[in-house]
TrEMBL record:
Its EC number is 3.1.3.25. It catalyses: a myo-inositol phosphate + H2O = myo-inositol + phosphate. Belongs to the inositol monophosphatase superfamily. Mg(2+) 2 binds at D90, D93. Pathway: Polyol metabolism; myo-inositol biosynthesis; myo-inositol from D-glucose 6-phosphate: step 2/2. It is an enzyme of class 3 (hydrolase). Its cofactor is Mg(2+). This is Inositol-1-monophosphatase. Gene3D superfamilies: 3.40.190.80, Fructose-1,6-Bisphosphatase, subunit A, domain 1. GO terms for biological process: inositol biosynthetic process; inositol metabolic process; phosphatidylinositol phosphate biosynthetic process; signal transduction. It holds the Pfam family Inositol_P. It comes from Tribolium castaneum. Keywords: Hydrolase, Magnesium, Metal-binding. The keyword Protein transport does not apply.
């Protein structure tokens, strides 16, 4: 299996780098922006081109592999994870940032086999940050091993949380409540505008935790493996194991911080499930 995993990883890396060149070329040009689920849930032609590039090339190399891609699902494809090797792709995570040329967007791609993440890549071509992981082999930034922070004191944690792409009033209420609860209890709150890059910051030890309600499997599939391979924990925000179709996630450098965060935040259950 590990020979195969290396082949899968090398192919994904090659196509992700080509996709990165495309993103870099397009970020400063004017974009055709369309709306998806809300007026702040955006998609551009580049999101679609990147997804096509990755799926076509990986599909040619590995014809029996399946795909879950953000833009394919938006176009009506199934969002189902079976035991078959499945590539889970967010072609541009942080599309809002990409539209505004805010340089924190990335290609996020993970390969799941038997519902377990085996390979993960998060690539921000604007800042040339390449986060990678293979299961059991550690997490890396541009080839250098990375580790989560050693912080265990919740008061000293830097916590990442996002506003999301929905303006549903109940969801907004939970986001605002959580900001209010946390701001006086931790060192600071941050949001990069990309779930995958937020998770990469936890893996890097630059932030201590991240949580979000309302995201999707393609936003966190790669981040999940990169965080755990860097020594961190991934769970449902209410404390149990992560349910990848519940649109909820919490990650942290350690269980103490994850559990404290989980107990303090207002819980929100996005509907529908994926
Ligand atoms: C979004 C980003 C954002 C998060 C949203 C995601 P997209 O992904 O990760 O940070 O708050 O929930 O949907 O739409 O840019 O791929």
């Amino acid at each position: 299996m590990s020979a195969n995993v290396n082949t899968f990883y090398e192919a994904a890396l090659k196509y992700t780098k080509s996709a990165g060149e495309l993103v870099l070329e397009k970020i400063s040009l004017s974009k055709n922006v369309a709306l998806k689920s809300s007026e702040i849930d955006l998609v551009t032609e580049t999101d679609q081109q990147v997804e096509k590039l990755l799926i076509q090339n990986l599909g040619k190399d590995f014809p029996d592999h399946k795909f879950i891609g953000e833009e394919s699902v938006a176009g009506g494809s199934q969002c189902t994870l079976t035991d078959s090797p499945t590539w889970i792709i967010d072609p541009i995570d942080g599309t809002m940032n990409f539209v505004h040329t805010f340089p924190h967007s990335c290609i996020s791609i993970a390969l799941f086999i038997e519902k377990r993440p085996e390979v993960a890549i998060i690539y921000n071509p604007m800042l040339d940050q390449l986060f990678t992981a293979k299961r059991g082999q550690g997490a890396y930034l541009n080839g250098k091993k990375i580790q989560v922070s050693k912080e265990t004191d919740f008061k000293k944690a830097l916590v990442m949380m996002e506003f999301g792409t929905s303006r549903d009033p109940e969801k907004m209420k939970a986001v605002m409540a959580n900001q209010n609860i946390l701001i006086t209890q931790v060192h600071g709150l941050r949001a990069l505008g990309s779930a995958a890059l937020d998770m990469a910051m936890v893996a890097l030890g630059a932030a201590d935790a991240y949580f979000e309600f309302g995201i999707h499997i393609w936003d966190f599939a790669a981040g999940e493996l990169i965080v755990t391979e860097a020594g961190g924990v991934v769970m449902d925000p209410s404390g149990g194991p992560v349910d990848r179709f519940s649109r909820r996630i919490l990650v942290a450098n350690c269980r103490e911080i994850a559990e404290q965060l989980s107990k303090k935040i207002v819980q929100y259950h996005p509907t529908p499930r994926d």
